[in-house]
Amino acid sequence: MWLFIMLACRSPSDDERPDPGDEVVDTGGLETALKVADFYDCDTDTVNLDAPSGVMETPPLGEIAGLCDGQVVAGTLDDPAFIWLDVISQQILNRWPVQAAPNVVALDVSGGALFGGGSRMDLETEAVDPASGLTDDLTGLVLGTDGELLALRPGDLDIVARADGRLVRSIATGAAGTLLAADPDQQRVFIAERGETRPRISRLTITDDDILDQKQLINVEGCANGQSMTLSPDGTQLVFVCAGDDLIIDRSSEDLLEEQGRWGAGAVPRAAAFNPDGSVMASINATQLHVFDAKTYRRQALATLPECDFPDYRQVGFSRGGDLIWAYSACGFDQDSGIVAWFSLPELLAASPEE
C-alpha cells in the first residue's frame, strides 16, 4: 500500500531518492542532487511512503534535529561531522567535518544555520566555520532571544551570537544540572538534573545586568531518575521525563510547583518531544513509541520500536512538518553504531483505537 502525505515542502523526485533497498553509501562530502537548504524550513511535509514505518542504520550520533520530508541532521561522534540523512530512503546525503564531536546541536531555521561541535554551518551555502563560543563540554544548546544561542556547560551558561558563533558573555548558573530548556519569548531558562532520585529544576531569568536571577528551585517529588526535559512550542508546558517512576510530568512553566498533568509512558521512559504545533507529544522507552494528546494526556497510539544489538533509545522528535516521528537508538556493546526508526503519524493515529 502506498501512503501519500501531500504538503507544501519540496519533495525529492523518484530519480533523486534512492531505492530503499539500495546499499547505504556515505558520500564523504561529495556533491549530491539535493541541497539541505531545500529541507530545513517548511510548515508541512510532502513525502511518498511505501510503508507506515521504517528504520535506517547510522553511525553513532549525537543530538538530532528534524528537517522536512523524513530528513534529519545530526552530529556524528566517531568522526566529528554534521551529517544529513534521508531516513526514509536510508541514505546519507552529505556530511561536513566540524571542530569537535557535536554531542548537542541547535537548528536555527530563521537564520538558516546549524550549530554544534565548535562549528556553525550556513544551511544555504553549506559552508562550515569555527564557532569559538561553542566549547566541547556542552550539555545543552538551545535558541535564545535576540539572535543568541544559550549553551550550557558545567557551572556556566554561555551566550553565543548566532550570526558568527562567537562568545558574547558567560553567566555563572548558580544551579546544578545538565539539562537545558528555554522560552526565548519570555527569556525564561530552565536547568535540571539528570539521573537524581529527587531531581531539581531551576527557573531563571537573564537580567539586564547579565545575571541569572533564580525565580524558582524545586525538587520534583515522585520523580526518580530524571532523563530529559523539553518545553512545549507555546512555552506553557515544561515536560520532565521520570524513568524511575514510569511517567512523564507536565509542570507549568510559570510556576514549577503547579503540576498540570501526567502521561503514563510505559516502563522506564527516556525522552519526549512535541510536534511543531504542540498538539501531540511523543515519548519513547526501550521498546515502545507512545503518542499522546498533549493537552488531555490521552494516549492516541502505540508502536513497537525496532531492535538492534544492545539498543539504547534516548531521542525522539518530529519532522518540521509534523507528519513523521523519528526515534534514535545507539547500538552495540560499545555504542559504535545506531539506528533511526521513523513512523508516519497519520498512519499511527488511523491504525490505533481510541483509548
Describe this entry's structure for a reader.
The protein has 355 residues and is mainly β. It has one helix at 345-351; strands at residues 3-5, 47-49, 53-58, 61-66, 71-76, 81-86, 91-97, 105-108, 113-116, 119-122, 128-130, 140-143, 148-153, 156-161, 167-172, 179-183, 188-192, 200-206, 212-219, 226-231, 237-242, 247-252, 259-264, 271-274, 280-284, 288-293, 299-304, 312-318, 324-331, 337-344. The chain has a four-stranded antiparallel β-sheet. Strands 4-5-6-7 form a four-stranded antiparallel β-sheet, with no helix packed on it. It starts with a strand and ends with a helix.
Short summary:
This protein is mainly β. 2% of the residues lie in helices and 47% in strands.
